[in-house]
Amino acid sequence: MAHINLLPWREAALKAQQKEYFTLLAAIGIIAFALVLSANFYYQARIDGQTSKNQYLKNEIAQLDIQIAEIKTLNDKKAELQKRINVVEQLQRSRNVGTQVLDEIAKIIPNGIYIIELEKQGNTLQLTGKSESNNHLANMIRAVELSDLFVDATPESITADDGSPKLLSSFKMKVKIKGLVDDEGGK
User: How does DSSP classify residue 122?
Assistant: First the structure.
């Protein structure tokens, strides 16, 4: 038995083992390629889905921007209308201001003060008159400050008339009227 040669059997076994190895290697390669391809398809589908969601959000944001612009124009129109309403209300309040001013002046002027001239410019009254004493004038200023119609009584000048028989002093005073349209422009 020493003459039996086992060499071709080993070569056949080695070729079979190599064939099995390459078959297994090809199967693993195909499986790996399939896994990579399926992972690629999965992530590409996720990317496409996210892209479509982003596009949807961009479209919705564009519509909301249009609505915001419309809201801004509506707010501007509302502010303009509110200004007009305020002007109309102020004009309504100041409609009878002449009558109210004369009525209030009759109430606040004490005995001993005589009004010579009354001039209205905007929301300011310029009073020019004569006073028997400075106490009467101080009482009138206090009455103006307590008045519901007048505010900010500012005496401009008080001068004594030496030539007059009753020793009257002349005065000039500015008084502001509350709630007139010009009052808003000054603020």
Answer: T
**Is the pLDDT at 7 greater than 70, yes or no?**
no
Residue 126 Cα distances to 68, 146, 154, 156, 177, angstroms = 51, 18, 10, 10, 11
Query: What is the pTM for the complete model shown?
Result: 0.48
Where do the H-state alpha helices sit in the chain?
7-93, 97-108, 134-146, 181-186
Relative to beta strand 113-121, strand 150-160 is unpaired
Residues 6+ apart with CB under 8 A from 133: 112, 169
How far are the Cα atoms of 65, 127, 155, 166, 185 from residue 163, in angstroms, in the given order? 79, 22, 22, 9, 43
Residues 76 and 158: their CA atoms lie apart, in Å, by 50
Q: What element of type H or E holds 160? A: strand 150-160
Assign 2 a pLDDT band (cuts: 50, 70, 90).
low
- The dihedrals phi and psi of 149, each to the nearest 5 degrees, come to -100, -35
β-bridge partners, 173: 127, 155
Predicted local confidence at residue 110, as pLDDT = 87
- Cβ 97 vs Cβ 123: under 8 Å: no
Q: Hey, which residues does 169 pair with through a beta bridge?
A: 131, 160
Q: What is the pLDDT of residues 36-52, one digit of tens each?
A: 999 999 999 999 999 99
